[in-house]
Amino acid sequence: MAIETFRWATQRGETPDIQYRVRESRFGDGYRQVVGDGPNNKEDSYPVTITGGKARAKDVMDFFDRHAGAKAFLWTTPLGELGLFTCKDPKPTPLGGDQFKVAATFERAFHP
Question: Known InterPro entries for this protein (predicted)?
């Protein structure tokens, strides 16, 4: 089965969480040695918001349900980098009338 692409426009402006996993050894004379922890040591996640009508919110939630928090999908970051991501915390919120807001966090995933 092909990898799906998250195709809905998101409201951007939220600050991503970017961290680099490292291993560090400290020595008695103040010297320390630091190396990256594995080949994919960059961990990044992006808070996103999608707003629109009830049908759009349902389409977005159906997409998340198909991936069930574990199956990765393609998404382009605000800096324009295409990558694999997962989403395990979508939150649909009614705004009144037919309008909904779906807030979620996309976390970087990697091929095994």
Answer: Phage_lambda_TipM
